[in-house]
Amino acid sequence: MKYRFMDIAACPMCKHFPLELYVIEEKHYPERAEEIEKFLNRFKPPLCEIYCYRLQTPIGRRIEEVKDDAPCAKCLETEVATGVLYCPSCGRWYPIIDEIPRMLPDDLRKKEEDLAFLRKYSSRLPEKIVLHGKPWNLGKS
Ligand SMILES: [Zn+2]
Ligand SMILES: [Zn+2]
Prior knowledge:
This protein has five helices and six strands, in the order βαββααβββαα. By secondary structure, the protein is an alpha+beta fold. The longest helix has 11 residues, at 111-121.
């Protein structure tokens, strides 16, 4: 998932925007540099339009505050390989696995897979997700 995706990612259940991003693992693709260079020549940076999440997580920095200092070429070169998208409005969390954000409504989610993901990364995620996140979590209550 490219950081750039955060500019359009809304909660599939309540439609809230923007979401919070918790990065567990990044992957870099320096071989994309040439392709990105061409892109930058055509479209003036900054590339992220509203928020840049590579500058700041879990809530992105507003582009209007950073302007040309935004490292948005890197936002194209880098993928979030593993992480979580969190909706601060309804409290739902969505895993990012193998670079793909799994933004599914509750009835299409697989509870056991979700809980296994939370167990694996519980030390890297905040309590509001691990213990209180919806639709399920590792909390007792
Ligand atoms: Zn950016
Ligand atoms: Zn939501």
